[in-house]
Amino acid sequence: MRSFVQVPIGLTIAFCMAIAQMSGAKAETIAEAQQHYHGCMALTETNPEAAFDDATTWEGLGGGHPARHCALAALIAIGHMDEAAQGLEKLADEVSADAVFKSKLLLQSARAWIAANKLERATATADYALKLNPELMGAHFTRAQAMGIQGAYAEAIIDLTAVLRAYPGHPEVLVMRGSAYRFLDKLDLALMDLDRALDIQPTNVEGLLERGNVYRLMGRKNPARNNWLKVIELEPDSDAARVARVNIHNLNSGVN
Question: Is the Cα torsion angle 114, 120, 126, 128 positive or negative in sign?
């Protein structure tokens, strides 16, 4: 199952409120801190090394938790996932904020743990995020990713089903659940999810690749081949297309 790491958005105001609470800053200072944080976070997307330098300097000058969060986001963009994940856990523990806000920091940490291939740590962190905020669907999704990579497909399906109750028809979630059903040899359920995902998003190459896999296991060679050919047509240079070419070669060669 595919994993991803994503910098959370919408944290600027909450962090700047935390600055005001901790330092008694005037409104002008809060506005300046909010502007600095926004600029620093934007810089993580274009020049994460510069963002990290800016954030660490800012933290040394009293930027506090907003500065540290930007530094950790920069570390994610640079690829230092272990360090970022640990730092985000620590920040969630230290920041003066409510449980919902802390859970979002823990969610980002869990995603970084997946990228660092520390799957048990990712699962534990997502567990904690959900204990703080049971309605955090991103934590259900991230825990499902970690569980799926570890081969715990039934557990992944439980989390993905929870996400789909909140976001019915989400193509990426349907594709992930369809993949999990395939691994459990529940091919009819897998095909239902994949058909639904591709009805909503016909150009979803991961869905097409996965549906081809399900068709192959069902013995339906022509539909399998057609789905894989569509992957190659849509994104010929992608990893999905590379796998599709191998699958077609094996299908034509009679390799299971």
Answer: negative
Give the C-alpha distances (Å, rounded to integers) separating 133 from 100, 130, 141: 6, 5, 14
Query: Quick one: which H or E segment has residue 247?
Result: helix 239-253
CA distances to 51, 105, 172 from 112, rounded to whole Å, are 18, 11, 19
Range of the domain at 252: 169-256
Task: Indicate the number of domains in the chain.
Answer: 2
Measure the CA angle with vertex 10, ends 108 and 43; round to 5°: 75
pTM: 0.85
The domain spanning residue 64 has which CATH number?
1.25.40.10
Q: Tell me the C-alpha distance between 180 and 195, whole Å.
A: 15
CA 248 to chain centre: 30
Q: Are residues 8 and 96 in the same domain?
A: yes
- For the chain, give the longest Cα–Cα distance: 73
Per-residue pLDDT averaged across 62-80, rounded? 92
Determine the pLDDT at residue 256. 66
Token couple for 93: 């523990």
Q: What is the pLDDT of residue 144?
A: 96
CA separation for the pair 153, 151 (Å, rounded): 5
The pLDDT score that the predictor gives to residue 107 is: 95
| Nearest-angstrom CA–CA distance, 249 and 191 | 23
pLDDT of 210 strictly over 80: yes
